[in-house]
Amino acid sequence: MDTLEPADTVELRRRIVAAGMEAFRAQGHGSVRVDDIARRADLDVKVVRSLFPSWDLLVVAIMNGWAGSRRRDAVHVAETLGARAYLRVLLEAAAADPALSRTRLALIGAASDPHHPAHGWYRTQYAQFVQDVTLFFTRDIIAKREPRTLTPHHAAEQLIALYEGLQLQSTMIDSIDLPAAWDRATTALAAGWSTAPR
Question: How does pLDDT run along the chain (198 residues), one tens digit per residue?
Fold first, then answer.
């Protein structure tokens, strides 16, 4: 493969990541191979492998592209409506994109193994997610959207646990309505936050 200019490399990476998302949506994460992604990107497999030398690096890039775009799109919700609304929007996006949501859950499980090549990356990303939601809760208290009895970090832990748990349940229970289940559970959580420190 000829040497690429940096701008060309960035564009090719974006193209490959977009093709990877399409492949996961169409085939499910268990059956997608590098060849499938290369075909959808209309690139030679050698080009894909030169930019993403390992499968794990490629999958990390695809998941980062998907999750990152969802979070960027939802930040304005956190700023105007708060942490609970922010996570609800993310949950709705996950419900609307079940194949990639399942892929993310499967990869988090795999990457919890300290020997997994992407272990460090997933832990860092998850810690940043918790930190972001903690910050949003802090701003909610200042804006009086949430009570002063709330401890932002503990609230973030609880809300993210609910967010992840409901998504996991939805992979096992076909009838679950994620937004409705979220609203019921967060209403109960918020009632507790308003009466005692957490």
Answer: 556 566 678 899 999 999 999 999 999 888 899 999 999 999 999 999 999 998 988 998 999 899 888 999 899 999 999 999 999 999 999 999 989 988 888 888 877 888 888 888 888 988 999 999 999 999 999 999 999 989 999 999 999 999 999 999 988 888 889 899 999 999 999 888 877 554
Residue 113 DSSP SS3:
coil
3-state helix/strand/coil string of 142-187: HCCCCCCCCCHHHHHHHHHHHHHHHHHHHHHCCCCCHHHHHHHHHH
Domain that holds residue 154: 54-193
Residues 94, 168 within the same domain: yes
Q: What is the CATH number for 165? A: 1.10.357.10
pTM: 0.86
Same domain, 94 and 146: yes
Residue 198 inside a domain? The answer is no
